[in-house]
Amino acid sequence: MRRPAAADLVRSIKSFIISFPFQTSNAEDDGKKVQEFLTMMETTIKEHPLWAHATYEEIDSAIEGLEKYIMTKLFTHTFASSSEDAKLDLEISEKICLLQHFIKPDHLDVPKVFQNEASWLFAAKELQKINFFKAPRDKLLCIMNCCRIINNLLLDISMTTNHTPAGADDFLPILICVTIKANPPQLHSNLKYVQLYRKHSKLVSEVEYYLTNLISAKTFITNINASSLSMDESDFHRNMQLARLASEITVNEPSGTVQLSEGGPPIVRNKDIYVDGNRYPFMEAEARDLRLEDVQQLLGLYRQVVTKYRMLSEALRQLSVDENQLLHVLNNHQCQDVKEKIKQQLEQAGNSGGTK
Amino acid sequence: MGCSSSFPDRNAGRLASLNSESSTAPESKNLRVKLVLLGDSGVGKSCIVIRFVRGQFDPTSQVTVGASFLSQTLALQDSTTVKFEIWDTAGQERYASLAPLYYRGAAVAVVVYDITSPDTFKKAQYWVKELQKHATPGIIMALVGNKADLHENRAVSSEDALEYADNNGMFFIETSAKTADNINNLFEEIAKRLP
Question: Least CA distance to A225: which residue of chain B?
């Protein structure tokens, strides 16, 4: 491309990129424009004297390079560009957050033999990488890698256990579980972007099949309700409600350790209390150790604790669980286990509440 | 269930010459055909495909990603080759509403039921109706009664199925993925019906 003979190509690529943002109407039209441009450039390159003796592979990689180049340049105009996209991304990500609290592989017909935490996590990690890349091909590769890991698991298990070779009956439910586990960033926008801007002649057969599977996983998750999980309507709503309360608590927790006031020696304390990585520094402090600057921090912590307590009480009230009884059960456990245990207790309480 | 022996069986009958995808003879025609598989879970959809693909296993062919998407090339008498790209779908009821995403643009739909289970035959009829309403007009449909080796437990008669298929312009065949009976016939018959 640096050679003078390529000047005409460089010119048309540059003019396409520069003119593109000024004629935007909607994503579908933009997609069409990019597709037409890529097809046109493919013909031009094939007929160009510079590529006269090029092999199929060389031309192919030139087109791939071109797609990556223009899409990287046009990324901000083409990716998640409308507020509607942003809204859908947020909705689906929030829904997944809630579903993570209570959906189990059994709800989706995943046979026990395929419930393999390690490979699922590995597959989920691949999906989470999708925003590391701007080019449609690279994003698609993340999806393919995720599917490959799931398929390797299916293949391994089928071979070692003499289980019926796994088809879509097993694949799709696992992909849905992995998608819920991963909560991939901007799922809707990423899928839309790949569909619109990946060169259509490359979006065929196997690649198209696995992309369709992720689209179908997204569709399933968006529409999830009691019947698609074979759950009681009331159980489903209670689970969603609990998940909402639990995530509110998480959101309201301070993200890091509360900063100590600057300057001067730290307050003399015998022991800090840690809950979930948060430090509560005044548990064993004496009144005479406190300085005026500490009041601000103390007040902040007090508010935090009261807010959490209020939410937990509300959650318990909704479940009609007796608070003292719950505390008694919790008494024997270590501090860092508390949250996990409460969650379990709540789930159990929720289940028994349902059968009454 | 339907398929015996471990998978993949790399020593199964080799008819590698059939995989002549890169055939460049000027008069030859190479078709690429999207085929979607529909049917209740457990009727042996994936077993049929694996039989078809494995039965003519080409050890030099690229290993595909998994069993839910497989492709296999069939060479016909007239030097036409047909590359079937086979899309499996999840058959459980909860995923039924997702099927249109898969059969969109398909040239062929193979609807599978289990001859020992009337419920799966009913489900097959549901799929046929869906396809008639929403699939590409002119889609080639095949009705397949699988597990024909279990004839002592047969609960759906061949006559009923044939009649249903005739009434709906479908091609009907009974197969056994276990014994490989009629598996190749199924795909050859489909290939003959391609435009």
Answer: B94
